[in-house]
Amino acid sequence: MSKTYYNPADLRKFGNITEWSEELGNKFFEYYGKVFEEGALTAREKSLIALAVAHTEQCPYCIDAYTKDGLQRGITKEEMMEAVHVGAAIKSGATLVHGVQMMNKVNKLEM
Amino acid sequence: MSKKSLLARNNDLANTKRQIEVLSNGQFANGELPTFAKKIAATNQFPLRPKKLEILQINMGYMCNQVCAHCHVDAGPDRKEIMTKKTMQECLNVIKKTGAHTLDLTGGAPEMNPNFRWFVEEAAKLGINDFIVRSNLTIIRANKKFHDLPEFFKKHTIHVVSSMPHWTRGKTDKQRGDGVFDKSIQALQELNAVGYGIPGSDLKLDLVYNPSGAFLPGNQKALENDFKKALREEFNINFNSLFAITNLPISRFLDYLIASENYEDYMYALVEAYNPEAVKNVMCTNTLSVSWDGWLFDCDFNQMLNLKVASKVNHISVYNEKLLQNRNIIINQHCYGCTAGAGSSCQGVVA
Questions:
Q1: How many separate domains does chain B show?
Q2: If you count residue pairs, one on A and one on B, with CB atoms under 8 Å apart, how many are there?
Q3: Interval B314-326: pLDDT, tens
Q4: Nearest-CA residue of chain A relative to B219?
Q5: Is A71 close to B211, i.e. CB distance below 8 A?
């Protein structure tokens, strides 16, 4: 068997984190569940945000989970891909906006 | 997508015993997942027993103009099992005296049975409260002889229930075959044109949504809202309710799950989403299913697994409602499909 850091079956065991720290674990899952309930944002909108963040966080468990969640909600693959682009745009924008810092530094140091 | 049934392809899973073997082995045999019997016993719901009979569901035959990838009936043009007029007459005798308020005709495409219209006319005379025909929509456009079905349904105040897996062409055609989306849209517009699904009309048109893959249906109401919005905006189509139905791991859907290596995860997801509240109202507790050849089953899924009712009365020719109601319902691991999340039935969610 090949050894890897990530095992898809581990996602099912996520709940087990409460075993070694019950109170904190339970509080986390309670909070987590509450966050994704219908609120000022719809559960559908939250699912797409989660999918985008799952990609920027590069969490394979979250990507699996929120791709499936999206399909269950009838979210189309075009919508999912656009959400991933939103995440990618912010990631690349966050990189590029630091270019201003580089420019500032160059302008300061150069005669 | 294959254009043939599992049966015509001589697929191993066309054998119902083989399907039951699959459902009993693996995760359920090694104890990784509890069997359905064990699960419902934990909430004192074993054995599962019928409540008041409300729905008589009659399968008119397995012949269909479509070969949907997920079909639990393994229906298709190559299936020749069709209810005879003699069996229909036996059904009519039962409809006359049953306490059930709903008659639900299914298939295959029930309209492909040559005696379908005769049967509907005769049954309609008996004064049924809610008379459902499960129509796949494309049948209306399949052949000239079916073009007047909307008018025929209207004449007998049939409650039309139709499958529509998504409001986009791609997802629909992938599950149900090329061209199904466009034909379905046209059929829905024709049903609307004679008054079906229009607000204020007594002609009811409901849609059935099945997930097009190895995942569970989302919230029924949210899906209904999305379908209504998309179908109205893009195609000016109206309908009454959307039923979100979970795909059960049998027949062609089971074949798909195994071939795509999704079977274990899917069963795990069903067990994880188990809801004891859904068990209380699961459809086998208020429905009886009649096969094309007159045998009686707890539900259409048990029919496709050839699991006949556990009663001396197991055929329509010797029907006795009182005796039938005193039976234990036959269960297996596929039943998890009806108890996941908000539950699932031919009428949509149950909890």
A1: 1
A2: 27
A3: 999 999 999 999 9
A4: A73
A5: yes
